Amino acid sequence: MKIIGIIPVRYNSTRFPGKPLVKILDRPMIQWVYEASLMSKFLDEAIIATDDKRIFDCAGTFASKVVMTPECNSGTDRLAYVVKKINCDIVINIQGDEPMMKPEIIDAAIKPLIKNKNIMVSTIATAFENEKEKNNPNNVKVISDKNNFAIYFSRLPLPNSLKHIGLYVYRKKFLLKFARMKQMPLELAEKLEQLRILENGHKIYVTKTKYKTIGVDTKSDLSEVKKWLSLGSKFSRHARATTLLPSLCSSLLKA
Questions:
Q1: Considering the entire predicted model, what is its pTM?
Q2: 226 beta partners
Q3: Cα(58)–Cα(30) distance, rounded to whole angstroms?
Q4: Weakly modelled stretches of the chain, pLDDT under 50
Q5: Are 209 and 165 in contact (CB under 8 A)?
Q6: CATH at 160
């Protein structure tokens, strides 16, 4: 079984243009994500996919494989473009704006598809820290049934919800099928493409994790990430992120 991770990255984010290239300590945001993916126990390969030459050139200085894609409507479309030409079984969509991503999160999301051949898609979620997090529309909420399959995702507060971490694991055949599905009303209303899967009658398995992460949607999020990673660097100024820093940040952010 071949498992690949793809980090789809675009430059022109509506809320924070250019954020993949923003420096956090000694490296750009996208490099933090890439280095975390390399530490996964299950990934055979990690690929950065972008339609922007600035990102392509930057990623080429540290990543072993960077793919230039045409302009795509979504990260899913970018994944589908790349994976069509790759012989693999499972594909992970790793968000490029998650500089505090941890290999433990990636691996936990992959395990359900390894253990159960009937699961086509999985994602991951964690507990909210406080009411402010719950009420922030940038934090997507997910509620699940007793078997851990998603009932709904929303930017609005939901009862008994978890904080969704934007990482998805697909069987390759299902990913290509998903990319061909038409957009649906709930997806358009919430601006959450994973709802297209639910609206078409398919299931998404939700793994729960104790680990926390901060997705960078705004400059305020970036300041929070810098604070945590700077705190980690004080304990080991000469340690690379691929060794000590992720585990330190994990312990700092555990529930």
A1: 0.87
A2: none
A3: 9
A4: 234-244, 246-248, 250-252, 254-255
A5: yes
A6: 3.90.550.10
